[in-house]
């Protein structure tokens, strides 16, 4: 099997994933998964599509991650991994789609508007 690549985005984070057959090693920006995401919950979010399909120990994953915060990066990586797994085996798509791993979350920060302190907040109104 040759290397399969995929792209995942969430908020400002972009994850480029390269998946090849191996023994379950996930390398993010030349660091180990546990080193890059010290929080257990973030490691779990990243591995969710692999756990769902039961292929955690089957593929080696190399990742280029940039932009955003750690939560956005973890969710971008989850989407990229799910997309790569579907490229490898298209029959897995319904299982991943039912869990919501194939959906690009479009929510981003709303821009600040002129004449306001934030996007929707207004300055205090003074009648007199």
Features:
128 residues; alpha+beta; Ribosomal Protein S5, domain 2; five-stranded mixed β-sheet; 5 strands; 34% helix; elongated
Mean pLDDT over the residues: 93
What percentage of the residues does DSSP assign to strands (E)? 15-25%
**What is the H/E order?**
EEEEHHEHH
Give, in spatial order, the strands making up the sheet with the most strands.
1-2-5-3-4
SSE blueprint and pairings:
Elements: E1 4-10, E2 13-21, E3 26-28, E4 31-32, H1 33-36, H2 40-53, E5 59-66, H3 70-88, H4 93-99
Parallel strand pairs: 3-5
Antiparallel strand pairs: 1-2, 2-5, 3-4
Task: Kindly describe this structure.
It is built from four helices and five strands. It is α+β, with helices and mostly antiparallel strands and 128 residues long. The protein has a single domain, classed as Ribosomal Protein S5, domain 2. A five-stranded mixed beta sheet has the order 1-2-5-3-4. Strand 1 and strand 2 form a beta hairpin. Helix 2 (40-53) packs parallel to helix 3 (70-88). The model has no long low-confidence stretch (mean pLDDT 93).
Give a nutshell description of this structure.
The chain has 128 residues and is an alpha+beta fold. It has helices at residues 33-36, 40-53, 70-88, 93-99, and strands spanning 4-10, 13-21, 26-28, 31-32, 59-66. It is built from 4 helices and 5 strands; from the N terminus they run ββββααβαα.
């Amino acid at each position: 099997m040759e290397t399969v690549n995929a792209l995942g985005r969430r908020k400002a984070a972009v994850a480029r994933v390269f998946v090849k057959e191996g023994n379950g090693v996930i390398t993010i920006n030349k660091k180990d998964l546990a080193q890059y995401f010290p929080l257990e919950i973030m490691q779990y979010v990243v591995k969710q599509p692999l756990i769902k399909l039961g292929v955690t120990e089957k593929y080696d994953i190399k990742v280029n991650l940039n932009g955003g915060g750690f939560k956005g990066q973890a969710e971008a990586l989850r989407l990229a991994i799910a997309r790569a797994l579907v490229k490898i085996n298209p029959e897995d798509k319904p299982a991943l789609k039912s869990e919501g791993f194939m959906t690009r979350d479009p929510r981003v920060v709303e821009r600040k508007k002129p004449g306001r302190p934030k996007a929707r907040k207004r300055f205090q109104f003074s009648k007199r």
